Amino acid sequence: MSALAEEAGLKRNKLTHKHTGLKDLFYALVRVQDSRPKAFDGLKWQNDELKRKLSDLRGEHNQLRTDVKQMARVVHVLEAENQQLRQSAGKRGVVRAFPVQQRPPAR
């Protein structure tokens, strides 16, 4: 209906309330022609593009969910290993860090 109003140079509410005959004629022609108004040509391409982007984002979202679950498992394993190290340190609870190797400066 908005496309018809735009093509006719009228406001949409004028078509739906004052010129109802034009509205009915428009819908009858659309059903017979089984086509879209010119105003919707660009919208079809835009809709297809948005659907493609949505599909890509859903795939990325699913991959990120999988990554988060894997990271949670890694954190859990590291926490368990850390607990074992603390227990093996004895009553003093001393855990010694490995010496840090110095890297040569980047050129």
Give a brief description.
The chain is mostly helical and 107 residues long.
Structural summary, described in words:
This protein is mainly α and about 110 residues long. It has helices at about 1-10, 10-15, 20-35, 40-90. The N and C termini lie far apart (about 65 Å).
- The tally of beta strands, per DSSP, is 0
- Which sheet architecture does the biggest sheet show? none
Low-confidence regions: none
Considering DSSP H and I runs of 4 or more, what fraction of the residues is helical? over 70%
Task: Give the C-alpha Rg.
Answer: 33 Å
Label the structural class: mainly alpha
- Overall, the morphology is rod-shaped
- Beta-strand content estimate: under 5%
H/E series: HHHH
Spatial gap, N to C terminus: 67 Å
Mean pLDDT: 82
Please specify the SSE layout and strand pairing.
Elements: H1 2-8, H2 12-17, H3 20-33, H4 41-88
List descriptors.
107 residues, rod-shaped, 0% strand
